[in-house]
């Protein structure tokens, strides 16, 4: 027993998310940013500088999302009713082209505020081409654990000219940003090289992105096989399927996370499995853009590691891990029957499996002594969460972001009683309104 700790989470239903799916009533002790001790039945005679009540709530590893775009947050609710390629050309790329530095920062803060209050403690994030330091500054200040990178685009009909960059110049910029931020904030921030997708990058750029990431040991993050028109266009331009092409340019491997994987041929699934490439399942965005439903049970049966992500606010329109879990545990019944992906499977994808996708399993993803204290406390008292016993079903099928009570990242309480502690919500709301107005005005003038 530790007689002293920095923080005590008391009287919760602790769900460690270990492989054996056990849970118990108890306390979690936190010190120096780490989980010191997990106490079934409760810790006795402990003195803590801070005590968070978890009565009637589940204590979980913080949720992990393996594909989001916080920089797109100001376009939320402004790009409905479109399929992927129109969504990009007509709304999202003109929006990104119109963002100034303050717009990038405010969008990032909006996205991070929603993520943290919804229980997400770690993200793999996708930036735009400019002002990416502002995303890292926002993540550093608001307290989320983030791996992120500015994107790369050097080709693409209909793409705003300001987003099309010289490949080598954009790679030099990425390298400089990565050197500034990778490993900073006590290791909470990391860099990932992020070419947007095959259709927006020359072969030279894709190959150089892979080379840059491997030179520094950074992750690679891109999109693949989200939409049928995209897949057909890649084949028309390269003569290969999308995953064959990405494999040929070096964009497969255990350091690569590809968002979507909705339209894959069996040989592409085999390439993903053989190369240990990771997939991020984005069911909410795939449904809203009408892209399709990725065959996640099939990918998992081949041993492909799969995480969960909300993708961008303009194509979801929320960044809720609980919403994505609910969809993941429901949708695959259509193709594979109702036992295809259980509530426990979905909860694992947003915790333990997500940590493996991001190569952070030694640090986060389960509740055990020595791990970073990234923890999410979710109320089990809501009408949709009672009655019942199995916490995974109650959380995945009965929980919403509004049920998130407390959130810790590296032991720091960033959300307490549902309220952000690291930013003034009233001031942020004012800036969000002003930034969207200014960005929309620039979009209209372009
Ligand atoms: Zn995306």
Shape: globular
CATH topology (level 3) name of the largest domain: TIM Barrel
- Architecture of the largest domain in CATH? Alpha-Beta Barrel
How many domain regions? 2
The largest sheet, given as strand count, sense and whether it forms a barrel, is: 9 strands, mixed
CATH class of the largest domain: Alpha Beta
C-alpha-based Rg, rounded: 21 Å
Task: Report the structural category.
Answer: alpha/beta
Mean pLDDT: 96
Small molecules bound in the structure, each named once: zinc ion
Q: Total helix count?
A: 16
* CATH level-four homologous superfamily name of the largest domain: Metal-dependent hydrolases
Question: What does the oligomeric state look like here?
Answer: single chain
Q: What percent strand?
A: 15-25%
Annotate the secondary structure layout.
Layout: E1 4-14, E2 24-31, E3 34-40, E4 47-53, E5 57-61, E6 63-68, H1 84-98, H2 101-117, E7 120-126, H3 132-142, E8 145-149, E9 151-152, H4 167-181, E10 189-195, H5 203-216, E11 219-224, H6 228-238, H7 242-248, E12 256-260, H8 266-275, E13 278-281, H9 283-288, H10 296-301, E14 306-308, H11 321-331, H12 333-336, H13 343-349, H14 352-357, E15 375-379, H15 391-398, E16 404-409, E17 412-416, E18 419-420, H16 425-445
Parallel strand pairs: 1-4, 1-5, 6-7, 7-8, 8-10, 9-10, 10-11, 11-12, 12-13, 13-14
Antiparallel strand pairs: 1-2, 2-3, 5-15, 15-16, 16-17, 17-18
